[in-house]
Amino acid sequence: MAEPHPLMFDPDDPSLARVREIALALPGAAEKVSHGRPAFFTVKVFCYYGGAAKADMTRRHDEAVLFLPDPGDAAALAQDPRVWVPAYLGPSGWLAIDLADAEPGEIGELLDASFRRTAPARLVRELDARTA
């Protein structure tokens, strides 16, 4: 039996609290620990908190969000110098940004897009109904 991954975050981290507030406000969202890091999901994960860049897996990004961008925004985001490709998830189209580099409101927009790509249609409709 494999050993569980050690926790790689502080549960009381105020940056995690900020991400948690945004992520858990989405319909049907829940939190779990996956590979030692917080993961936010409905049926599929739409956000991880913290990770490492594919280019330098020795440097941890403990206060970052990993997200699945809207396909229409992916190319532009990939060219943004603040955005990086996360280890393991990058080949599946995931990107990441450190919270310190994000503009106000940007994390909410990125998580909204990632949620829409991974959540069941009924939860996306529920989200749309909230903003209508």
Automatic annotation (TrEMBL):
<protein>
    <submittedName>
        <fullName>Phosphoribosylglycinamide formyltransferase</fullName>
    </submittedName>
</protein>
<dbReference type="GO" id="GO:0016740">
    <property type="term" value="F:transferase activity"/>
</dbReference>
<dbReference type="Pfam" id="PF04237">
    <property type="entry name" value="YjbR"/>
</dbReference>
<dbReference type="InterPro" id="IPR038056">
    <property type="entry name" value="YjbR-like_sf"/>
</dbReference>
<dbReference type="InterPro" id="IPR058532">
    <property type="entry name" value="YjbR/MT2646/Rv2570-like"/>
</dbReference>
